[in-house]
Amino acid sequence: MNRNSRNIILAILLMAVAPHSSVAQDVLLKGGTVLTVSQGTLQNTDVLIEDGVISSIGRGLRAPRGVETVDVSGKFVMPGIIDAHSHIALSSVNEGSSPVTAEVRMEDVTNPYHLGIYRALAGGVTTSHIMHGSANVIGGQNETIKHRWGATDPDAIRFEGAPRTIKFALGENPTRVHGRRGSGGTGAIVPATRMGVEQVLRDAFENGKRYMEDWDAFNASTDPRAIPPVYNERLEVMADILRGDVLVHCHSYRADEILMLTRVLKDYGVSKITFQHANEAFKVAPELAEYGAMASVFSDWWSYKFEVYYSTAFNAAILTRNGVVTSINSDSGELNRHLYHEAAKSQRYGDLTDDETLALITINPAIQLGIQDRVGSLEVGKDGDVAVFSAHPLSVYAIAEMTYVDGVKYFDRNEDRDDMRMLVSPSANLDTYIEQETGRHDIHEVIIK
Amino acid sequence: MMNALLLVVLALLTAFQQQDERPRQGTYAITNAKIETVANGTIERGTIVIEGDRIVAVGTNVTIPAGAEIIDAAGMEVYPGMIDSGTSLGLSEVGSVAETNDTNEIGDITPHMNALTAVNPNAVAIPVTRTNGITTVIAEPSGGLFPGSAAVINLIGYTPEQMQAGSARLMVLEFPRKQQRRFFFGGGDGERDDPDKRYNDAMAKLDEIWERATVYDRIAAAWDKDPTGKDRPAYVPEMDALRPVLAGDLTLMVKVDAADDIEAAIEWVQKQELSNVVFSGVSEGWRVADKLAEAGIPVFAGPVLATPTRASDRYDRAYDNAAIMHNAGVSVALRSGETENVRNLPFNAGFAAAYGMGREAALEAVTLAPARMLGIDADYGSIEVGKKANLFVSTGDPFETQSQIVTLFIDGFNVPITNRHIELYEEFLNRDAGRKQPVEVLPADN
């Protein structure tokens, strides 16, 4: 069975078992201050969502028959926030058994019951990029989800049609896990250094390229006696990266390793790259801009490990001013509840405009995830993913009040009861310590140990 | 030769400019400012005069001394320097590098450890912190049962002693936890220990230590009073360090979070008849706010920007925890619990303000309230004549991220608004392209 026929069979199987995940709804949000992000701020403006999609933005809109009208006068309406780096809604994070594990997928460990989804909604976040950890140079494939809280089927929270993405990792994490004895690593497997990281990448890409060429030659062959190459799922994924079908999101910190990956990707013709964390990306902002590389960074995390000691909270501002598409992510079940505040801090440390600042948590992460045609700004035709705040979301006093996904209200501060959370158990207490400690600085690093 | 001379002149000029960038004390007048004194309301358009380390005049009708350096703060706002009631600032440089962490000495019973000793005045995070308006922090040791005494430091100085804010110090007690910290992930083999036994053992150990300290204190006091005819009692540094706590002279800072632990801690301090006590952390204080109020125990609450303690709790419990305690009548100061990001204290306060505490109470919780709890309110915590000049000029409400701090005084030192983050920004914002071609090596005789 060649690759194409395999895919067709897979697709048929998927169609047979996948439930219809859309529960789109209609709503008219009336009279708010609408922060479109892409087309400025509109005062006293209505947003109409029909069948889960924004059908109209303007003044004096009338709700079609049967469509609920919600008065949001005095409130601020913004696109649902997008977190480009998260580990919520996962039951596993790191397949730390090999420096290259391109074959594993977060799709297989997506957990719709995870409370982090609700807590993110309560901060206006509607989409998360839930990622493999950073133990491996080439980790697993990530998943982009919508926060359809209450769904019980993992497939119901997937962002339909979102491009495939994969996690890479450079620097201290993969070298510690694999190459360094006595600090959590086996001490027996390359890489132990940043030199080794490069060669692990080149090895994987070269093998992926040869595999792809072998299959292409086989598929193009008219010789009925041609023998197909040996199937290898890991190399399939590498080939898909080379074909541009899988977007690379790479955990990285130092400027040198960031440049190293751009060189490797250039050699293999891979153009789509988002550097995750990238605390030192500001040092090579012109080089990143030239390559078209993007960056998804923290607002102000630094100094928790040596490779982030020479950081600056002005990272996002420097990158933005140099023309690098930049987002602010959380990597944390705590930070993801106030990404609007994290973005506001990036405005403090620099001179970004309000729209540039809001873009850090809306349209820019959407671009990095390849979903900018669906979400990331308030425009007619885009998904009805909307957050409503009590004040301008860049104010520290702003409170997230309502969050809609596909026009469905999944969070309302006024309807939040103490007993509404899932996973409530009489014996459950003090998981604060778990959440707080794993919620800080590289959740996956804690897990590695 | 000419070039060499020019270089020397340039070097001298640069040195002079750098010298000028140093923190300086002197006579300053901050004029035309909106002044939030915290102690005595807001002055809409007033003047503050600073001489040496003190505020010597505040008001609308102030005579500016001749020769004072005038800082025109028209359109700006002045606030007392903020105080963070719980950090590891100065004790830790790089989180994952053990060699740079000095918060936890070997052993569970180390009350004789003194955090001030390990405060690094040149920690890179210190200027990063103060440029957000935080002038004073508690730097605390952690771990074990009695990890040592916490220091109260101003964020300027060449030596730890210069940084110390008055003589304030707090003895840290990590109160035993009924629920042990644990991780969902990793481990997996489960330590299979008995949590009840572990807790009971820890409480028994605490009681035993306290009993021994009490006996030690009694014997030492008797010797101090009249040594004649007595053998000199053996010196036990751990017990010696607890004597000022027993005497009520040194505040006991009890680190405690869970509701049942808070109740146990209240019971314990009452049993020991300790009155000079403050609770720190207190993330489930909202559950037992009335009991804390009734016991009259003040709290250092935070971090505010945290997740709820239990899955079943409202998503915003950490945000309104401080407000619930405040509204129940508990004296509340706020802490970030941070090391390198103590700079986020004003935003923790902003969230507490937004989620029920109100801005006024939140501002007090990072200024005058902790100063009072630390017994340093004669010098710190508000803008009043006679107090130390710990204050800053801001373009607006310092809890708002958009506001920029433009002038900062700590102990009367006019501190330049710079730090490594700002320096990297200035260096890299408009970085030049750098060398693209190999440099042509010039002949040696050129």
Short account of what is shown:
The complex is a heterodimer of chains A (about 450) and B (about 450). By secondary structure, chain A is of the alpha/beta class. Chain A has helices spanning about 5-15, 115-120, 170-180, 195-220, 235-240, 255-265, 285-290, 315-320, 340-350, 355-360, 365-370, 430-440, 445-449; strands at about 25-35, 40-50, 55-60, 70, 75-80, 80-85, 125-130, 140, 145, 165-170, 245-250, 275, 295, 325-330, 385-390, 400-405, 410.
Task: Give structural notes.
- The complex is a heterodimer of chains A (449) and B (446).
- Chain A has a domain at 80-375 and 433-448: Metal-dependent hydrolases (TIM Barrel).
- In chain A, 29% of the residues lie in helices and 20% in strands.
- Chain A is built from 13 helices and 17 strands.
- The longest helix of chain A is centred in the middle third of the chain and has 27 residues, at 194-220.
- Chain A is globular and about 65 Å long.
- The model of chain A is unreliable at 10-22 and 423-449 (pLDDT under 50).
- Chain B is an alpha/beta fold.
- Chain B has 2 domains: 21-81 and 381-424, Urease, subunit C, domain 1, CATH 2.30.40; 83-179 and 231-377, Metal-dependent hydrolases (TIM Barrel).
- The longest helix of chain B is centred in the middle third of the chain and has 31 residues, at 195-225.
- Mean pLDDT of chain B is 92; it is low at 183-190.
- At the A-B interface, α2, α8, α9, α12 and α13 of A face α10 and α13 of B.
